[in-house]
Amino acid sequence: MVISKRIEKLGSGVFDRNDHRKELYRTTSSIQGKLPMVDLSLGSTDLSPPPVVLEAIAAALTDPKSHSYCLHASTSAFREAVAFWAESRFGVRVDPEREVLLLVGSQEGTAHLPLAVLDPGDSALIMDPSYPSHLGGMVLADANIHCLRLRHEEDWRPDFQSLSQNDWDQIKMMVCGFPHNPTAQVGHQSWLDEAMSIGIQHQVVVAHDNPYVDLALDGEAPLLLHSEGWRECGIEFFSFSKGWCMGGFRLAFAIGAEPLIKALRQLKAVVDFNQSLALQKGGIAALSHAANWPKNLLGIYRKRRDRTLQVLNDIGWHTPVPSMALYLWLPLPEWAKDQGYTDETLAIELLDETGIALTPGSGFGLGGRNWLRLALVRSSEDLEEAIGRISLWWDAKI
Q1: What is the pLDDT of residue 12?
Q2: pLDDT at 4
Q3: How far apart are alpha carbons 125 and 146 in whole angstroms?
Q4: Could you check whether 5-48+293-397 and 51-289 share the same CATH topology?
Q5: pLDDT of res. 13
Q6: How far apart, in whole angstroms, are the C-alpha atoms of residue 321 and residue 298?
Q7: What local confidence, expressed as pLDDT, does residue 9 receive?
Q8: What is the mean pLDDT of each run of 10 residues along the chain (398 residues)?
Q9: What angle do CA 304, 240, 73 make, to 5 degrees?
Q10: Residues sharing a CB contact under 8 Å with residue 352, sequence separation 6 or more, in sequence order
């Protein structure tokens, strides 16, 4: 059977590769007497959504309207709640009809936007490392992809000036995301202001992936909506998955320049319908009645971060302190490099030998090589136990 070249270029995603490995471990661990798996590879939290959200969804599930296809017009109440939230949370007024769009997860938005704004061969820019859908969407759009390397020694700051004026004249779209996944650093508003200024000057669409806007442990998360000119060529993606612990509900939204919202809406009309009205009711409840819920999570994640960093430090795995909740970005230990490990092979052996599942950093781009991502999605006690398992394995290796 013939498979498209774009699928060959897309390759296997890091989460899919990890999924196969984890399933193999699950099916063989009991037979081989291995320890139960502790999955720290996904940002899928163990924390529950706000009760008011679950109550709203449950109450709406039996409504026959929730069983029907949901076209754009049926999302008006949701979009109005988004507009109210944007003004109350950020002091930014947006038009719910022209500047807001419901999404099936922010990943859908970042993956589909390139199809809406790029022609095959157009140049586009992503950060490196970055979330996989940023690259994947560009590949599916047959874009000419440029990668802007983010470096630890530069505090993961995007050096937009490293590209020439001619480069910027060729680029039609750039995607970034701060607070940043996978490095778990919050970033700075000045970075987005610079990106937006470049976008206006060179007619570049600036897409900002911002599902962690409410999960900054240190500092204030940057916001494209606070950058002058976003209504000209900017779009920002928000999600309920992280701040409201609703990853499995696949509910998100975009706020952006009217032409970009219109183009993405047109694409969505061909690709999919919208989420059930019952799920939209949950999103409305989150924005209207549980807007401060993400703040309740910060103390929990700070405790997990600090305790896990301490036990990692005790075994000699020295790790940068993340300013964003949910992840640790672990450098490949020097002894592991000396023994010929890559981030992928180390993650494979850690899972096989200890039952601890981490994500290889190279799955986020070449800039993630020699790093691993650990998600703080279990209790402090579970995380400490996980590092204890790693410690035994670590001691045996060195």
Answers
A1: 73
A2: 85
A3: 5
A4: no
A5: 85
A6: 15
A7: 82
A8: 81 85 87 88 96 98 92 96 98 98 94 96 98 95 97 96 96 98 98 98 98 96 98 98 96 98 95 93 98 96 97 96 97 96 96 96 96 97 96 90
A9: 180
A10: 25
Domain 5-48+293-397 CATH (choose: 3.40.50.1360, 3.40.50.10800, 3.30.365.10, 3.90.1150.10) = 3.90.1150.10
| pLDDT given for residue 61 in this prediction | 94
SS (H, E, C) the chain: CCCCHHHHHHCCCHHHHHHHHHHHHHHHHHHHCCCCCEECCCCCCCCCCCHHHHHHHHHHHCCHHHHCCCCHHHHHHHHHHHHHHHHHHHCCCCCCCCCEEEECCHHHHHHHHHHHHCCCCCEEEEEECCCHHHHHHHHHCCCEEEEEECCHHHCCCCCHHHCCHHHHHHEEEEEECCCCCCCCCCCCHHHHHHHHHHHHHHCCEEEEECCCCCCECCCCCCCHHHCCCHHHHEEEEEECCCCCCCHHHCCEEEEECHHHHHHHHHHHHHHCCCCCHHHHHHHHHHHHHCCCHHHHHHHHHHHHHHHHHHHHHHHCCCCCCCCECCEEEEECCHHHHHCCCCHHHHHHHHHHHHCEECEEHHHHCHHHCCEEEEECCCCHHHHHHHHHHHHHHHHHHC
What pLDDT score does 8 carry? 80
Contact 374, 330 (CB under 8 A): yes
pLDDT at 140: 93
Could you please state the CATH topology (level 3) that the domain comprising 51-289 is classified under: Aspartate Aminotransferase; domain 2 (3.40.640)
Single-letter code of the amino acid located at 316 = G
Q: Where are the domains of the chain?
A: 5-48+293-397, 51-289
What is the token pair recorded at 181? 């996944």
CA distance 75 to 258: 17
Alpha-carbon distance 26 to 375, whole Å?
19
Residues 6 or more apart in contact with residue 247 via CB below 8 angstroms: 43, 44, 45, 241
The pLDDT value recorded for residue 348 is: 96
User: Would you say how long the chain is, in residues?
Assistant: 398
Per the structure block, which two tokens stand in for 188?
């700075």
β-bridge partners, 330 = 372
The separation between the first and the last C-alpha atoms of the chain, rounded to the nearest angstrom, is 48
